[in-house]
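Design request, tokens follow.
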């Protein structure tokens, strides 16, 4: 049975051990993790802009200037609506 301690085994150099460590760290599992994180970021970005377009509407104009009355930014509006939705969903469970 192979020894699993932190010491180098017979015939093993530091370079081969470092190579095995690099293969482990950047191997299949790490690549799956990186790909999953990238998909999460992409889907979050798409969801945010999709919800923003749905709630606010696609328009080239932003919030009114301060002298035209009360106005909140589009992003604050989206955050508020999504927060209220999450709270109401958690209360109904």
């Amino acid at each position: 049975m192979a020894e699993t301690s932190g010491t180098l085994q017979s015939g093993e150099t530091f370079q081969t051990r470092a190579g095995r460590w690099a293969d482990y760290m950047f191997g299949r599992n790490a690549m799956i993790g990186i790909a999953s994180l990238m998909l999460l970021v992409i889907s979050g970005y798409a969801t945010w802009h999709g919800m923003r377009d749905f709630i606010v509407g696609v328009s080239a104009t932003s919030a009114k200037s301060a002298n035209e009355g009360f106005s909140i930014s589009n992003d604050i509006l989206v955050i508020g609506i999504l927060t209220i939705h999450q709270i109401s969903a958690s209360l109904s469970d």
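Comment from the thread starter after seeing the answer: thanks! Helices lie at 14-25, 28-56, 74-92.
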